[in-house]
Design brief:
Elements: H1 3-16, H2 20-31, H3 36-43, H4 49-89, H5 107-121, E1 125-126, E2 132-134, H6 135-138, E3 158-166, H7 184-187, E4 189-196, H8 202-210, E5 215-224, E6 236-246, H9 251-266, E7 271-279, E8 282-291, E9 299-307, H10 309-314, E10 323-330, H11 331-339, H12 352-355
Parallel strand pairs: 1-5
Antiparallel strand pairs: 2-4, 3-4, 5-6, 6-10, 7-8, 8-9, 9-10
This protein binds phenylalanine.
Phenylalanine binds near residues 303 and 328.
């Protein structure tokens, strides 16, 4: 090729190059050791000195020109590539995100948390007890002896087999004891039947065994009853036990606290009615009905009473020194009133059409 043609061709081809690979091919074609320009230099030896000088100068300048064109084109192509990459990897931060579904709290949990907040603000501590309970704490310690007809008030799920339970009062180490191992009688192991607690009241005794008055606690928790289910009965449900003990706690204190609680929970004034009732572990006992509107329907909401002396005794407290009130309120019942749910079984159904409403 003639030098003139080389320059024209090179310019055309370089201009047309679509990518770096093509450009590299052109570099080889024109500028490599066997390229077009090198051919020109090789042909110089056959020329006269004058011609050689002339053409050599021209070839050198053509070489530089082509080099420069390739350099420019290469920059251009790299820039284009960079822009394409940015375009491709661009993130639109203004695009709405993908929503993913998270769960939410169960209505009973919502109600329980709210109720606990109210009682905590009134100075009550939150205490928990076991769902798997002994016959002693669930019944005997609450003044419900074996074979007493009052046990019929709580249909019970019994567990099979007896359990050896150490009597808590025998746990205190006796320093004067010489024998390193105690005999069966000395360990005072009681053979106890186990059951699913039928109410949260056993925690009254468990707590008073370990803590001295004055005390103010609430105990939320799951309870179980072996009975037929219907719209207002489930085999499991949630209760909140309340207990306040001091030297002078009275039924008037109870009324004030429960009224304050109900007013705050329902965010309106609530009429309450204390009806005489019977529980073996309170004396006197009452049932509390509430009414949210004048002339509205009375709804039975909780059981309560003044702690029975026998219960203090079972927990090792002197009933002549202490008095207090206890109450048990159904959290399911509160949730049903709050959310206007007409069937307690819905809470345990796992039915998403129901649960998604909260
Ligand atoms: N434990 C009783 C029940 O389940 C309720 C109650 C608690 C009554 C405390 C009096 C005092 O039915």
């Amino acid at each position: 090729m003639e030098l003139k043609t080389i320059k024209i061709e090179a310019r055309k081809e370089i201009k047309r190059a679509k990518n770096l690979k093509e450009l590299d091919e052109l570099f080889k074609k024109y500028l490599s050791k066997k390229g077009e320009i090198a051919q020109i230099f090789k042909s110089l030896k056959n020329l006269s000195e004058r011609e050689r000088k002339e053409l050599g100068r021209k070839a050198n300048s053509a070489k530089r020109e082509i080099e420069e064109m390739i350099r420019k084109k290469s920059k251009e192509l790299q820039e284009k590539l960079r822009k394409q990459k940015i375009e491709k990897e661009k993130i639109d931060v203004t695009r709405p995100g993908k929503k993913f579904t998270t769960g939410h709290l169960h209505p009973l949990t919502l109600v329980q948390r709210e109720v606990l907040e109210i009682f905590k603000s009134m100075g009550f501590s939150v205490v928990l007890g076991p769902e798997l309970e002994t016959e002693w704490y669930n019944f005997d310690a609450l003044n419900i002896p074996k074979d007493h007809p009052a046990r019929d008030m709580w249909d019970t799920f019994w567990l099979q087999g007896n359990q050896k339970i150490p009597n808590p009062k025998s746990q205190i180490p006796n320093k004067s004891q010489k024998n390193l191992r105690l005999s069966a009688e000395q360990t005072n192991l009681k053979s106890e039947r186990l059951l699913l607690r039928t109410h949260t009241s056993p925690v009254q005794v468990r707590y008073m065994e370990k803590h001295n008055p004055p005390l103010r606690i609430v105990v939320p928790g799951r309870c179980f009853r072996h009975e037929a289910t219907d719209a207002s009965h489930e085999i499991q449900f949630y209760q909140l036990e309340g207990l306040m003990v001091d030297e002078n706690v009275s039924a008037a204190n109870f009324r004030a606290i429960i009224e304050e609680f109900l007013r705050r929970f329902f965010k309106q004034n609530i009429e309450i009615c204390l009806r005489p009732s019977y529980f073996p572990f309170t004396e006197p006992s009452f049932e509390i009905d509430i009414r949210r509107e004048k002339k509205g329907k009375w709804t039975e909401l909780l059981g309560a009473g003044m702690v029975h002396p026998k219960v203090f005794e079972a927990a090792g407290l002197n009933p002549k020194e202490w008095q207090g009130f206890a109450f048990g309120v159904g959290l399911d019942r509160l949730a049903m009133l709050r959310y206007k749910v007409n069937d307690i079984r819905l809470f345990y159904s796992g039915d998403l059409r129901f649960l998604k409403q909260f």
